[in-house]
Amino acid sequence: MARTPLMAGNWKMHKDHLEAIQLVQQLVYHLDADDYQRTEIVVIPPFTALRSIQTLIDGDRLDIGLGAQNCHYEAAGAYTGEISPPMLAKLAVRYVVCGHSERRHVFGEDNETVNRKVRAVLAHGMRPILCVGETDEQREAGDAERIVGDQLQAGLEGVDDAQATEVVIAYEPVWAIGTGKTATPTDANDMCAFVRGGLAERFGEDVAQQIRVQYGGSVKPGNVAELMGRSDIDGALVGGASLTADDFAAICRYHRL
Ligand code: 13P
Question: Is the pTM of this model over 0.90?
Answer without folding.
Answer: yes
